[in-house]
Amino acid sequence: MNPSPIHVVKLNLYKYSLSLPLLRFFFIPKFPFSSSSLSLSSSSSSSSLRTLDQSQTNSISSSLFHLLPQTQNPNNIVNLICSNLKQHNSNLALLHTEVKALLPHLGNQEVSRVLLRCQSDSSTALSFFNWVKNDLGLRPNTQNYCIVVHTLAWSRKFSQAMKFLCELVELVKDDLPSEDVFKILVLCTEDCNWDPVVFDMLVKAYLRMGQVREGLRSFRKMLWVGFVPTVTASNCLLSGLLKLNCTNRCWEVYEEMERFGIAPNLYTFNILTHGLCKDGDTGKVNKFLEKMEEEGFDPDIVTYNTLISSYCRKGRLDDAFYLYKIMYRRGVVPDLVSYTALMNGLCKEGRVREAHQLFHRMVHRGLSPDIVTYNTLIHSYCKEGKMQESRSLLHDMIWNGISPDSFTCWVLVEGYGKEGKLLSALNLVVELQRFGVSISQDIYCYLIAALCQENRPFAAKNLLERMTRDGHKPELEIYNELIKSFCHCDCIAEALRLKTEMVNKQIKPNLVTYGAVIDCLSGLGRSMEGESLVGEMVASGMLPDLAICRALFNGYCRENDIDKAQSLLSFFAKEFQIHDTESFNALIRITSGKGDITRSLEIQDMMLKMGLLPNPLTCKYVIDGLWKARRVDSASLVK
User: Is 146 helix (H, G, I), strand (E, B) or coil?
Assistant: First the structure.
């Protein structure tokens, strides 16, 4: 007997695997409902939509339950829920009270059966699904989600259906990677009202959640089973692939679109044009544009802007301006994107004046520049050191109601900094704040560091206080810059105050902090205080380095405390394994210079015991000491 033309001719979905090479299904908008089809109202264990193990539902199949009252019979839970939803207009609080005793018997299969019986009333199905998910804490499975998505899509509630699809694909990705959402959506069509748009929506859901490769798989599964995706879904997929730089995949999808009769639109061609421009193959771009026109599509503003931007990035300004002229001839008026791309191309080649002229032409033609347009010119003028022109453009944009962003402020401040005009940069910050522009922490840190490099730590500290008042939290690096600057200016009291402030703000000083302060203290003849800071470092779990050792050693030497300098070297060698031949040599040089050759030889022996081999400089200083001692002895004998 020949099958009726309204029936579905399909492979057995209960065993179907989408890895088969030539899988074809032919669907009609509504499957016939038959006893042989997959039914959730039956307790048959052969249903491929069952998600609970038989062991989980043994209590429901118990033959003794028929002796219980209807409201206490677990076998009757689906009927009770459905009748309650119908009678009480989805009063879920009342439903909870009515079926409270049976809720432990409510599993995913029962949820699916309720959803199927509510599919003609999508609001009730949605309320019930949310109640199960949010109030009962029962985690819906993939099948539950698919049924509610079909129900919502059939009722034209596409935004809610998309929300649940996105939720589902994220759930499957994180917790159920073996689940095949597409397959279960297909299987659910046996008992659900359904609309093929659901499969389009699945592709979009994957793309929306950043799962582009899954979106591509679903797109191909649609083609394999006989569904034809819409051009909108195809375009979304092309755009997603292009964002991942999968241009080859884009062309594969485009070929599949042609093979399966999915008519491209202008958006399709614009996406592919953008892909060709990214590849930089101009020959292919021109051929593709010819094909586009043969298909009856005239390039629009997006097409031209894509091409102009590509040409400008590659430095092909002549081609870009040729297209700019062609646009007018073809009745396509250049927009803000067109002009900004051309201006950017000119600026990259150092033709800032021409870019500014084009800016004025754009304004005269009635287009209002935006922040990107202004930033393009301001940045280019700053690079050329033309700060007056940059400042003029800044005032112009503020006058036109466009607030400078962090990039605008940064390039202007940096421009003044490169020109050595820190005062102008600081005045600019004050001016911008007067206009209500927020100054970023990066700008404050840049200016503080610049002031420190110019040995103006007090001005830098004032700026730090202003930065704190603006709500920014200074970090360790900026404190270190200030402390180093104060130390360089021998303002040790200020440096120590800043160090205390850091600690009070829960900012732990590091090796740079301690190194700067200890070096300064040693240079000011306060080596003992510097050495006490070493103890503080060690107590906080930090070990001194060679630079700190040398700073303290040099300090004691300047203070003419040779004994302390010698014991310091010995201490650092034993406690921190810092063996500094250079400092030992300096110590030998000092003792030899004083004619204390005995001590020089003792220091040399100490070096050998520590495993340090004397170098030529060590020997030179010892020999110098011996020679000086001999001369002193000779002089004494003469007398």
Answer: helix
